[in-house]
Write a structure and sequence with these properties.
Layout (H helix, E strand, L loop, with lengths): L13 E10 L4 E3 H4 L7 H8 L3 E3 L7 H16 L8 E5 L10 H9 L5 E5 L5 H14 L5 E9 L17 E11 L5 E9 L7 E2 L22 E2 L1 H22 L9 E4 L4 H11 L10 H4 L5 H12 L8 E8 L3 E8 L1
Parallel strand pairs: 4-5, 4-6, 11-12
Antiparallel strand pairs: 1-7, 2-3, 6-7, 8-13, 9-10, 12-13
Helix pairs in contact: 3-4, 6-7
């Protein structure tokens, strides 16, 4: 007899999302402002992506500083002292340095020493990967409080002369504090983290000539900037997003209508709308803020979560599905009972 999927939780330890926070640059850049420097228009960008404006860092702001602000707010909302954190997981592809990790310095910044700390690089899937890892650590019984962050400054990897990519990205950070609870029904019911490295050249950031794929005809000519085959990424993401959602619902014998909210990575409004229509969900059951933030990669799901908490649209006992797809390619789902 085949048992339940390994991705489905059967632990006796519950996990609650105790607090959330965000760190967002004050500077905003509208589509009209971008149209002054590249050949585009507000209408063209909004129709194809859903984006109207995005936040961009200024001098002195980094993924770490944004992440620190987000985690500090999440700890405050949770009412948990920083010193009680056992681990900090930071999803980012734009850390300040290759070493030390941003997470290590965030632990020091918020006063959480000597908590464990690790950066994970899963691109846009980073925060959902972190949620899955954090909840699993707590469910072992060996950790009680875990800070999970998604933080990006993609503006630093953007080719601002390439109108196909510079319109897409924004900077920001979001965080959640996960805490152990005696309510075993609360927490992550199902999780899956996946990848397909064979598709790496659809979305990558080359350091030099040796990083270019065999067919580099789409290379913009600027190293250390994001290179994307938008058509291939869109096709892959649409199919993968729908399959990932189906797998999560089927594993837990849950219907789409049972979900209080779907919190997807904010990559493209058309992709989100296709998923909503396929699930037959009303517009208020799949969260969208891409119009105000653009694609903030690992930060996007975390920022959405915080906004929903602030708007009091999530309640204890709700079923919430987190889902993201990112470069690599990576994708992840996390189904929670709040």
């Amino acid at each position: 007899m085949i048992g339940p999927p390994a991705n489905k939780s059967n632990t006796s330890i519950g996990v609650r999302i105790a607090g959330t926070g965000i760190g967002v640059p004050a500077r905003t850049v509208s589509n009209d402002e971008l149209a002054k420097t590249v050949d585009t228009t507000d209408e063209w960008i909004a129709q194809r992506t859903g984006i109207r404006t995005r936040h961009l860092v200024q001098d002195g702001e980094t993924a770490r500083t944004l992440a620190t602000a987000a985690l500090a707010q999440a700890l405050d909302h949770a009412g948990i002292p920083a010193g009680e954190l056992d681990m900090v997981i930071s999803g980012t592809l734009t850390p300040e340095m290759c070493t030390p990790s941003d997470a290590v310095r965030i632990v020091a910044d918020v006063g959480a020493k000597p908590a464990g700390a690790v950066d994970i690089s899963a691109a846009c899937s980073g925060f959902v990967y972190g949620l899955n890892m954090g909840s699993a650590l707590i469910q072992t019984g060996m950790y009680r409080n875990v800070g999970v962050i998604g933080a990006e400054t993609l503006s630093k990897l953007t080719n601002w002369d390439d109108r196909t990519t510079c319109i897409l990205f924004g900077d920001g950070a979001g965080a959640a504090v996960l805490a152990a609870t005696g309510n075993a029904d609360q927490g992550c019911l199902y999780q899956r983290m996946s990848s397909d490295g064979a598709m790496w050249s659809s979305l990558y950031c080359p350091r030099d000539q040796t990083n270019l794929p065999m067919d580099s005809t789409g290379f913009t000519g600027k190293f250390n900037t994001l290179q994307m085959n938008g058509r291939e990424v869109f096709k892959f993401a649409v199919v993968t997003l729908q399959r990932a959602i189906d797998d999560a619902l089927n594993a837990c014998d849950v219907k789409a209508d049972d979900l209080a909210m779907v919190i997807p990575h904010q990559s493209n409004i058309r992709m989100i709308e296709l998923a909503r229509q396929r699930l037959s969900l009303p517009e208020d059951r799949i969260y969208v803020n891409i119009d105000r933030y653009g694609n903030t990669s690992a930060a996007s799901v975390a920022i959405c979560l915080h906004e929903l908490v602030e708007q009091k649209r999530l309640h204890e006992g709700d079923l919430v599905l987190f889902v993201a797809i990112g470069g690599g390619m990576t994708w992840a789902t996390s189904l929670w009972r709040l």
